[in-house]
Design a protein that fits this description.
Radius of gyration: 24 Å
Bound molecules: zinc ion
Number of strands: 0
Helix content: 25-40%
Largest sheet: none
Shape: elongated
Number of domains: 1
CATH architecture: Irregular
Order of helices and strands: HH
Length: 85
């Protein structure tokens, strides 16, 4: 008959884990300071992987740029149409 003691259950100190911020790029795991600002994609990276190109950023920069470009193009098209009329 096995009686489980409370001490046998592994207790995770969540407060300690939360304070450990590490670079989330693959196997890098470089310790980051508490002042490190996460990327726009929501992940924190070290100085090496901070650049969007370095961590294959998931933030939709291109989508944003495309949307703005589409707006500009639409404006150009409407302007040229107005000029023709
Ligand atoms: Zn890194
Ligand atoms: Zn990013």
């Amino acid at each position: 008959m096995l009686k489980r003691k409370l001490e046998d259950v592994p207790v995770f100190d969540l407060s300690k884990i939360a304070k450990k911020i590490r670079c989330e790029f693959g196997e890098c795991k470089t310790k980051l300071g508490l002042t490190s600002v996460p990327c726009k994609c929501g992940f924190s990276y070290c100085s090496i992987h901070r650049h969007c190109e370095s961590h294959n950023c998931a933030y939709d920069f291109h989508g944003t740029q495309k949307a703005e470009l589409t707006k500009k193009l639409a404006k150009v098209v409407s302007d040229s149409l107005e000029n023709r009329i």
